[in-house]
Batch of 4 targets.
Target 1
Amino acid sequence: MLSMIRWSQERDHGKEDSMNRRYSAREVAHHIVDLCARESEPVSNLQLQKILYFVQQQYARETGGLLFDDSFEAWQYGPVQPGVYREYASLGGAKIRKVYGGSALASDATASCVVDSVTRRWRSQNPWRLVDATHVKGSPWDRTYRGGLGNHHVIDNAYFLDNAAV
């Protein structure tokens, strides 16, 4: 009986850890790119940036926390995570066809579910539709960009948590 209780506590502790684990934006981006390539619907860097932003928003709504701590910047065409942007910048507007073959999110059902759901919802959208969707009044991007005054300024991650209730 004691071993069963210990096993249950360890199992529940593992769940708690995965729910509280934060990933890097790069790990989440690799998961998105891999999913899209494996399902024969690759995305461009522009699409990836917007999907990554929507993932962070949705994860905050569903869990009250952030999926990753890396910040976005408010650029003219919407939010950009600079490290992820640079990783794929050499591709220009071409589709990212890389398959990573494994994901840091694989053992985290909550994170995987949110990321996969958001990715599948948005990946087939025209990139400019995604840009428009990030420019919603009151969004974290809008609150930072402020009509261009905040161009390339860091979007405060607290804005995602503020918008979680929206």
Note: Residues 2-20 form the longest helix (19 residues).
Target 2
Amino acid sequence: MQKTSRPQQRPQDTSLIRLFIGIAPDADTQHFLDGICREAGQRGLPKKVRWISHTNRHLTLAFLGETDPDHLETIEQSLAGIASGSPPLCGKIVSAHPFPRARAAMFAAELLPTPALTRLHRACQALMHAIGKAPERKTFRPHFTLARSRSGFSRPAPIPADFTCTLDNLTLYQSLLAPEGSQYRSLLTLPLCGAENSETDSQA
């Protein structure tokens, strides 16, 4: 099911705002991730764990960082172009584990980096040049963060998964600092509505 654009109030503060581009999970994916969280909890976790709420769950495509609000119009126009030329994708969640390495402070559900998803990631990174920013160079490992712990996750062991999720939107998020951890506010959500590739590599 496609999401429609939701015009939302832009930040009024003229100071820099912390932005990133991601994909919001649909209801079926949220339900699956809830099950992973329950299983992880039954296997034993650190005493102090902060679970990520439904509204904060996302798959990051590009981190823009501290950004001048004057660039919002350029970013939104670029995202509209990317979304209109990109078809809805299918992603495969294959494991949930400490991320990005053992004993890390995050516990996440990781997806295979399919060619289509990687192209979408690169397109979102490329728009950073239009606002004078250099994209991150680290390897793209698509994932949904499920929990955080300052002491790190030595348990549970990786939880194998085989779930195909729908990735059908581009969302521009603002990261807001809060005592209970960063909160993510959606500034713009656009449906991926491009034509399907004849080679169907969106599922490759």
Note: The longest strand covers residues 89-99.
Target 3
Amino acid sequence: MTPPPRLLPLMLPQPGLAALRDAALVEGFGFVERLMRDWDSGANRFAQPGEQLVGAFEGARLLGVAGLNRDPYLRQAGVGRLRHLYVAPGARGRGVGAALVRHLLRGTAFHRLRLRTDTAAAAAFYLRLGFHAVADATATHEIHLPPAGHDARADGVAGDWR
């Protein structure tokens, strides 16, 4: 059995991120490239309170990446946005994406997280983790999180994010 990936904060430039970008572009996804461009320009460095960018590693190899920002579309206190989740094709099906999302959900001060996806596979993935679909121009899914230290099972919070 493969050991779980190590989840670590990322700072760019990050060895292996260009390879993830290239793989994402082959699949028609431009968001890893946008992540790198926004970091380089200073537009988004995941540096605001509550924000973070993490990578999943197997040894020194970067398997995947995911970020958490304040939601720029709502600009409401306590609302974050899950962004730029990408896992290398060869690492899929091993729980890497779920580990990244769970890590971000467990460590967040945000009480509500939103995201946008345009693939059925990603939509199903987020539903399994407890997100629910929303009809919104700027988000396809969201999850409401209990306060830190609260037992979510007592409130019937769905999903497998803990």
Note: Residues 103 and 144 are 16 Å apart (CA to CA).
Target 4
Amino acid sequence: MKVSMVSSAISINSTTKELSGGGSLIDLGVHFIDLAVWLMGNPKPVAVTGATYTKFANNEISNSVHSRFGEKKENGASLQIEFSRASNILEDANFVKLRGTKAGSNLRIGVLQLYSEAAGQLTNVTLS
């Protein structure tokens, strides 16, 4: 499963530790980690990695602007989470992707796409 919330804009309220709190991973990430683990069926983690970054546009920012989190599960599944308060990108990239052995999905700004196979043919269903 991959979750990404990356913003192209920067806000003083989200990058100042005194105003925002715990940075992108603590402020937003924990909720999506919880959702992702629940969607995966709560498998037991066996390895976890993480990193946070405070440098953006040649400035050191007092709160984490970009965070990455990864987990490998006991059942072989993996989870990637990426959150950013500001990035050098053209537009915001907010999505949740779930890929399994029988189907996959992509949720992006209120549109859910489901991918699977039926009668030997790939299927694609979009729900909005």
Note: Helices lie at 12-15, 17-20, 23-39.
